[in-house]
Amino acid sequence: MKFSQLRNLVAVAEAGSVRQGARNLNISQSAVTKSIQQLEDELGVELLHRVSHGVTPTAAGEAIVKRAKVIQGEMREALNDIESVQGGETGEIRVCASPTVAMGLLPSAVIEFKRTRSKVRFQIEEGLYPDVLPSIRKGEIDFAICLVPERPRDAELNFELLIRDHLVPAVRAQHPLTQESNLKLEDLCDEEWVSYRRAASNRDIFEMTFTLNNLEPPKNVTKCTSFACIQILVEQSDSITLVPKKMFSARLKSGAMTQLFMDSSMPSWNVMVISRAKHILSPLCVDFLKELHRVASRADT
């Protein structure tokens, strides 16, 4: 079993066809087909269902792909380790961040880090807790930075606190509710809301904010998978959204949006770095996490 065979199998399984998988790898289709056939012969099982419109992994194929992704992650970590040992300034960091983290804290940390490590490559994705956890376990990403409602207990993962924050309702600067005082969350249940809803799980931050206050979530909700679109909807209508106060403070002060000051407490949410056991993180990732904490300490003041 060769690493190239596993790499080719993963590429084909993710692409859904041998042709597209080969294109993504920038190698010939025949070479990919041959390597997967050799792997099947070696294992004595069929790894792909081949149909007219593409391929899908068999049960055995899914098992191999799952393990192959972990191996790819470990190989990437090993290359980063070698670069660090040799004193190199290159390597790759793969990180997933929730939308509000991706709009402020993470870019600031990346910019600061690349001032001295300009050749380091970043791959940045958006994702929500707990949907990001499988990718962390598989080694597809090095770590995630997400809003987490509590400190979970998971022997396979490390949860490291960055910022203690809480959500606040945000509206356009001239919204009628900005003139109201003594607002409570229950007063807003009948208003029009916009909610970020990319999560596949049922542990939705928007809904949990209301249920933790013993309230039924609002019914008049526009669900959106683009946080940029949510901003426009809020800034140009009477819609309300929820944002983490500290993480979004700069934008709340910019004038386009403002928070509603509540007379009742809002649930707290921790901004946390989620990774596999810290000792397997490459020195490159550890160095970047130090920079991330420095940036976070400024945001937490």
General description of the model:
With 301 residues, the protein is α/β, with parallel strands linked by helices. It has three domains: 69 residues, Arc Repressor Mutant, subunit A; 106 residues, Periplasmic binding protein-like II (D-Maltodextrin-Binding Protein, domain 2, 3-Layer(aba) Sandwich); 104 residues, Periplasmic binding protein-like II (D-Maltodextrin-Binding Protein, domain 2). It has eleven helices and eleven strands. The strands form three sheets. Strands 3, 4, 5, 6, 9, 10 and 11 form a seven-stranded mixed sheet that branches. Helix 1 crosses helix 3 and helix 2 crosses helix 3.
List strands and helices in order, with pairings.
Elements: H1 3-15, H2 18-25, H3 29-43, E1 48-51, E2 54-57, H4 59-85, E3 91-97, H5 99-102, H6 105-114, E4 120-126, H7 133-138, E5 143-148, E6 157-172, E7 193-196, H8 205-211, E8 221-224, H9 227-235, E9 241-244, H10 249-252, E10 257-259, E11 268-276, H11 283-299
Parallel strand pairs: 3-4, 3-5, 7-8
Antiparallel strand pairs: 1-2, 5-11, 6-9, 6-10, 6-11
As for the CATH topology of the largest domain, it is D-Maltodextrin-Binding Protein, domain 2
Q: Which superfamily, in CATH terms, is the homologous superfamily of the largest domain?
A: Periplasmic binding protein-like II
In sequence order, what are the helices and strands, one letter per element?
HHHEEHEHHEHEEEHEHEHEEH
Helix content: 25-40%
CATH C-level class of the largest domain is Alpha Beta
Q: Roughly what fraction of the amino acids lie in strands?
A: 15-25%
What's the alpha carbon Rg, rounded to whole Å?
Answer: 23 Å
The major sheet is characterized as: 7 strands, mixed
